Amino acid sequence: MGQEYTNHLREVRGFAASTVSSHRRTAQCFLQHLKEVGTAVGCIEGSNIESYIAQAGTRLSRASLQHDIAALRGFLRFLSTDGRAPTGLDRQIDTPRLYRLEQLPRALSWDTVRTLLRSVDMTSPMGLLSRRSWKGTVLWKHFQHIKERFPLMRPKLYLPYSELQ
Questions:
Q1: DSSP structure string for 23-80
Q2: How much is the mean pLDDT over the chain?
Q3: Which helix (H) or strand (E) holds 139?
Q4: SS3 assignment, position 158
Q5: CA distance 137 to 129
């Protein structure tokens, strides 16, 4: 049945080799699960599908589980086309929901960065030092201000070429 399903995915559905491999792996895992619980392919019930998804959910993220469920639906449709499995099983599977801002962002928006920078307390030594140019070096225009307010602090001083003239 594995080779027949692989041919169906490649020739009928037109899937790429990597997609075929992924769908075939899902089908093999599902068939192995059926074998472990002692259920024949022709006798698949919703509870068998639920137990497989619960098992897969322990090893997959919700995003990956969505792909696994999509592959399982396709496999169940394939089995039902010639009567090897009951029809309609593919429609009984609920997909886990993914939400747009569910995970941490990969980067902050410029508005968020600006808001964060404006939130720095410029009355504290750390806040004043946060206005440095790089590696703890303070620009000349900030150096005098820091020295006046916090005489014991000795930040590194950076004098731009234009200030030396």
A1: HHHHHHHHHHHHHHHT--GGG--HHHHHHHHHHHHTTS-HHHHHHHHHHHHHHHHHHH
A2: 79
A3: strand 137-139
A4: strand
A5: 8
Which letter does DSSP use for residue 94 in this model? P
Q: What is the pTM of this model?
A: 0.59
The candidate with the shortest Cα–Cα distance to 25, out of 52, 2, 47, is 2
- Cβ–Cβ < 8 Å for 121, 144: no
Tokens 């599908």 label which residue? Answer: 49
Other beta carbons within 10 Å of 112 = 11
Smallest Cα–Cα separation from 79: which of 37, 121, 40?
40
| C-beta of residue 44 within 8 angstroms of C-beta of residue 88 | no
* Of 78, 94, 82, 75, the residue nearest 28 (C-alpha): 75
Mean pLDDT of 37-62: 89
**Percent of the chain whose predicted confidence (pLDDT) is above 70:** 73
Query: For residue 67, how many C-alpha atoms fall within 13 Å in the half-sphere facing its CB?
Result: 12
Q: Which two tokens stand for residue 27?
A: 């089908």
